[in-house]
Amino acid sequence: NYNDNYYNTLYVLSSRDNILLFYQILDSGYTYENEIVEVTNNFNCNANTLYPSLKEFKGTLEGNNYTISNFKLLAKQAYVGFIGLNKGIIQNLRLSRVEINNSDNFTSDIRVGFICGYSIAGNIINCHVTVGLFDISKLSGGYEYFGGIVGNNNSANTIISKCSSEFTITNLIGTGELIYVGGITGRNTYKSSKIEYCYSKIK
After folding, report:
1. Residue 1's pLDDT is what?
2. 3-state secondary structure (DSSP) of residue 150
3. DSSP 34
4. How many beta carbons lie within 10 A of that of residue 45, not counting itself?
5. Per-residue pLDDT at 9 exceeds 90
6. Element (H or E) spanning 16, and its range?
7. Is pTM, for the whole model, over 0.85?
8. 11-47, pLDDT tens digit by residue?
9. How many CB atoms lie within 10 A of CB 198?
């Protein structure tokens, strides 16, 4: 019926096409505030490239411990991750065989993480990345942040908890002011923000 179709279109991630639509909705300015977006099954993106939204996400992304696998995120903008700019909750999400690379020069700050590029006033709980790859070059911006979960966690009194990442870095060559690289987050800006019960393996 109409209500089921409406729900499945806006609030369910079950395929690559759903992710593309989700990004388009975010690009339109819809933030999902106080709403839940759910991953409902394991699925393979067949090595396709996704273009994350720069617009803020204020809802809850509930991964339900399913795995989204085999895709690329193209770093063309300032915030790069499965969620580019997070002001909500991301939880119970698993990503595998995910690659982040770029085709253009960066001349400004960049924040890159597999789960989230830039987190402001958001929590990230029980999220996991396996077989990740950062293949980033052509950097000439200001500050550059790279994290296995979050590129830059830039908010007080937030939590990154029970997360893990396993990834490889290649071609990380930059001429910016500073490059921050971390297994969980490239930089955790505020001391009041907790990172707990997490681990990472960088190859």
Report:
1. 37
2. strand
3. T
4. 19
5. no
6. helix 16-27
7. yes
8. 899 999 999 999 999 999 999 999 999 999 999 999 9
9. 20
